[in-house]
Amino acid sequence: MTTRNKVSALVLCGALTAGLLAGCGSKNDSTNEGNGGGQVTLRMIESLTSPARTELLKASIEKFETANPNIKVDLISPPFDQADNKIRTMLGAKEDLDVIEARDLNVSEYVNNGFIDPLNTFADSWSDYASVSAIAKSLGSVGDKLYFVPNGLYERQLFYRADWFKELGLTPPKTWEELYETGKKLTDPSKNRFGFSFRGASGSNGTTDAITLAYNGDNVNLEDSMFTKDGKSIYSTPEGKQAMELYLKLYKDTSPPDSVNWGFQEQVQAFTSGVTGMLLQDPDVIQSLTEKMAEGTWATAPLQAGPGGKALLAAGGAGWAIPSDSKHKEEAWKLISFLSSPAENTEFSKKFGLIPIHTSATEDEFFKSGPYKTLLDMSNDSAHFVNFKPPFQYPGNGQWGQLVQDSGQSLLLGQTSLDDTLKKWADFWDKQKAELKK
Amino acid sequence: MNNKKVFILSGLLPALALILAFTYYPFLKGIIMAFQDYKLFDLRNVHFVGLDNFKAAFKDPKFFTALKNSGYWVFCSLILQFVFGLALALLLRKPFRGRGIFQGFAFYSWALSGFLIGMIWKWMFNSQIGVINDLLLRLHIIDERIGFLSNPKWAMMSVIIANVWYGIAFFAIMLLAALQSVPADLYEAADMDGATGIRKLWNVTLPYILPTIIATTLLRAIWIFNDPSLIYGLTNGGPAGSTHILSSLMLDKIIYAGDYGAASAIGVIMIALLLLYTIFFLTVTKAEKVGDF
Predict the structure, then answer these.
(1) Half-sphere exposure of A6 (CA within 13 A, CB side)
(2) Among A33, A374, B182, B234, which lies 20 to 30 A Cα-Cα from A264?
(3) Rounded-to-integer distance, Cα B5 and Cα B2, Å
(4) Three-class secondary structure of residue B259 per DSSP
(5) Mind listing the pLDDT tens digit for each residue in B91-141?
(6) What start and end residues bound the annotated signal peptide (chain A) (predicted)?
(7) Cβ-based burial of A18 (10 A; exposed 0-12, middle 13-18, buried ≥19)
(8) Is A33 left (phi over 0), alpha (psi -120 to 50) or beta?
(9) Residues of A with Cβ-Cβ distance to B41 under 8 angstroms
C-alpha cells in the first residue's frame, strides 16, 4: 500500500468513526445565546410524554412563540418510560435546560440534589397565581417553597358499571364498608363477574394507603400523611388494622383471585371488558373508558370514606420547573406562566383528561357534567373530602410501592399474617422518618 | 515499531476507543458503583461503603429466591428450548412444499422484543380474560380458572413456558444451519453400514453438529440468565417476589429504589457466577471444538 493510500485509509477510518458517533448522538446545537438580536432559545423537556399530549404542548408553545417573537422554544419529548431518567441525567450533566417537567414523585429528589430552583419570587408577581387552587400549590411545593407549577391534577374516584347497578337496584357506595357490601352483591364467579377491580401488583399501595387513611380519618397528620397526629404510623393503629382487614375481605370476596398480580392495565381491562363492576382510578382512564364502553354503561362516584365519614384525598401530577443552571430563568418563567394561564391550562386539561389548576376553571360547563363532575364535587366538599400531602419528601417513597406489592401479595396469598405485615409496614415508615430527621 | 505496525495500530485505534468507551468503561464503572452508596435521591453524597451493598444483598431473602429461580429458569428454559429447537430443525431439514413460509412462521418469535412477548403472554395467561383459561375451560380440561401468573405454584412455570416459546426459534435457526452443513456422503456411508434413523442421528448428525450445540447452549444460557425483560413484562417478579431472577431483581433496585449501588452489587455477583459457569462449561465440553463451526 502506498503512503497516500494508507493516509486516505486512516482518514476514512477516522471519519467513519466520527460520523458514527455524530449520527448516534442527538442534535445539540446549544447556541443558546441566540444570534445577536436578543433572540433566546429555551430548551424544554417533558416527562409524561404521549403523542397526543406532545401535540397539545406544541400547539401551546407555538402560540407562545407568536406572542414572544424573541423567544424560541426547543421541546424535547423523550418516551415516557425513559423520560425521568433522561431528565435526571441531563440535569446531572448540567446540560442546557430551561424548563423541565417535574413530577410529584421525583420533585423532592431534584430539590435534594440542588437541580431546581424555587419559583416563589416569580409566582408572587404573577397575576394569575391567585386563582391557582390550594391543592395545586401544595402539589408543586416541597416544604413551604413552590418548585413547579402543575399542568393538571390527577385525583382518584370510583368508576362503576351503571347498568349492573341498575339491574340489581344498587346505589354507588359512599364508604369502604359499602364498597365491600356492594362488591359482594355484584360478584358471581360462575358468570366470571366480580365486584371490584383489585390491583395487587405494582401500584397496590394506592389502595392500601387510601383505605388506611380513610379509616384513620381525623387522626391523620395531613402534612405527613403516613403518620397520625401523635407521630405513629397509620398502619400501626387499631383503625389501620381494621382497614386492612377489610382490604383482605375486599380481595377474597369481591375480586378475581388472579388480581393479586394485576397492575394498571389488567385492572382497567377487567373493568372495560365486563369482568369487574367497580374501579378506583384517575381521570386519565376516562378516555379509554369512553372509547371501549357503550355510553350509559358506566358512571362515576366520589372516593369512599372511612367510618368517620371522611375520605382522604390527594392530587397527583406533574408540572413545569426551572433548573438551577438555566441561563434564561426570566424567559423560562414567561413560558411557564403562559402555559399555566387559566386559558391555556383549562384547554390542555380538557383535551387531555385532567383537572385544571385554576379554581376559576370550574365555571366551565365541560367540568360540570359527566365524569369530571364528581371530581369537582369532591374538591368543593372539603368537609368530607380532606386533602393530604403524599409522603413524596421521603427518599424511600419509591421503595414503599415495592414493599407493599411484595409483602402485600404474600399477605393476600396467605403466606404471612396481617399482624406481621402491618408491623413491617409501620417499621418501614418509622425508619424512613428517623433517617429523614438525621 | 515499523511502519506497518503503526499503520495497523492507528487503523484499529478508533474501533478500540469505541469498545473501551462503550463496553469497558461502563463495566468498570459498574464494578466501582457496587462498592459505593450511589442513590439517585442523593447524588451529591456518593461515597464508598466497602462491602455494604454485598452484605445487604446476602441478607435479603429475596436475593436467594432470585438466585434459586435463576438456576431453575436457565436450566428448564435451556433444555426445553434446545430439545424443541432441535426437533424443529430436524423437521425443517428436508425440503418440502412451502418450507420457506413455514420457516418464516416458526422463526418469527425470535424477532419480537422480550417486553412485547411478556405483554402477549400476560394477556394469554390472564385467568379472567385470557385465551388459555378459556380454551381449557371449553375443552373441559379444567373446571376452575387457573391463576397462571397469580398463583406462586404456577407463576414460575408459566414464565418458563413463555421463554421456551421465545427461544425455540433461536436454536432451530442455528441448528438448522449446522445440519445443512453435514455432508451427504456421511449418511450414504451410514446407510451402507445399515444404520437406522435413530442411529444416524446419534452417531452421525449429533457428533457433527456438536461444536454448534456447545457454542449455542453456552451463549443462550448466558442470555437467558441476563435477560430480565420477559419476567418484567409478565409478572414484574410477582406474586410476592416468587418469580424474580437475579437480573429482574437488579432492575427492581434501580426502578423502585433508584439504588445503583445495590443494583451494581447484584450485577457483580452475576458476572462472577457467569464466569464460573463459563469455565465449568468449557472445561467439561473440551473447549477446542467450540470454535470449529
Answers:
(1) 13
(2) A374
(3) 6
(4) strand
(5) 988 888 888 888 888 888 888 888 889 889 999 999 988 999 999 999 999
(6) 1-22
(7) exposed
(8) alpha
(9) 109, 112-113, 395
Task: Quick: pLDDT tens for A312-366.
Answer: 988 889 999 999 999 999 999 999 999 999 999 999 988 888 889 998 887 888 8
Nearest by CB: B40 against A88, A259, A270 = A88
Q: Which residues contact A422 (CB under 8 A, 6 or more apart)?
A: A235, A236, A240, A241, A244
B260 vs chain A: nearest CA distance in angstroms?
13
Supply the pTM of this predicted model. Answer: 0.83
Contacts of residue B206, Cβ cutoff 8 Å, sequence gap at least 6: B213
Verify whether the Cβ–Cβ distance B147 to A261 is below 8 Å.
yes
Please, which residues have CB within 8 angstroms of residue A10's CB and are 6 or more apart in sequence? B7, B10, B11
Q: Which amino acid is at B289?
A: K
Q: List chain B residues with CB under 8 Å of A269.
A: 129
pLDDT of A30 over the 90 cut: no
Decide: residue A358, CB within 10 A, 0-12 exposed, 13-18 middle, 19+ buried.
Answer: buried
Q: Which fold has domain A157-314+394-437?
A: D-Maltodextrin-Binding Protein; domain 2 (3.40.190)
> Contacts of residue B238 in chain A, CB cutoff 8 Å?
200-201, 260-261, 405-406, 409
CATH superfamily of A3-154+316-387: Periplasmic binding protein-like II (3.40.190.10)
* DSSP for residue A281: E
Q: How far apart are CA A95 and CA A16, in angstroms?
A: 27
Q: How far is B150 from chain A (nearest CA, A)?
A: 5
Which chain B residues are closer than 8 Å to A409 by Cβ? 238-241
CA distance A150 to B73: 45
What is the spatial distance between Cα B237 and Cα B244, in angstroms, rounded to a whole number? 4
- DSSP class per residue in A95-157: ---SEEEEETTTHHHHHHTT-B---HHHHHT-GGGGGB-HHHHHHTEETTEE--EES-BB--E
Q: What is the largest CA-CA distance in chain A?
A: 93
Using CA atoms, how far apart are residues B76 and B79, in angstroms rounded to an integer?
A: 5
Return d(Cα A153, Cα A315) in angstroms, integer: 6
ipTM: 0.81
DSSP A71: E
Which residue reads 414572544 in cell numbers? A68
Inter-chain touch A113–B43, beta carbons under 8 Å: yes
Distance from CA of A367 to the nearest CA of B (A): 34
Nearest-10 Cα torsion for B24, B30, B32, B34: -150
Considering only CB atoms, which chain A residues are within 8 Å of B11?
Answer: 9-10, 13
Q: What is the dihedral of CA A286, A291, A292, A297, to 10 degrees?
A: 70
Range(s) within chain A of domains with CATH label 3.40.190.10: 3-154+316-387, 157-314+394-437
Residue type, B139: L
Identity of the residue numbered A352: F
d(CA A34, CA A327): 12
Architecture of domain B52-292: Orthogonal Bundle (1.10)
The DSSP output letter for B175 is H
Q: Closest to A202 (Cβ–Cβ): which among B7, B151, B236?
A: B236
Helix (H) or strand (E) holding B228: none
